[in-house]
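Same chain as my last thread, 74 residues:
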Amino acid sequence: EYERIVADQLEQLLEDGETTGRVMALPLHPFISNQPFRHKYLARALERIVSTEGVWVTTSDAIAEHYLAQTGGT
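reply #2:
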């Protein structure tokens, strides 16, 4: 189910992002997501994200730098 939820979120954000930027966050709680039986689902979800054309896997700092460069620092 987790993979489907992430895939649905990604698909919607890609559609929304055709006209403006979007950020996808994956909330991960170590007690929940770090359970060994869940690792494969998280790994597959991440593989799908990074292999999707048009996805920029980055950091919040890089997003801020990109935004400032695009807007002239305003």
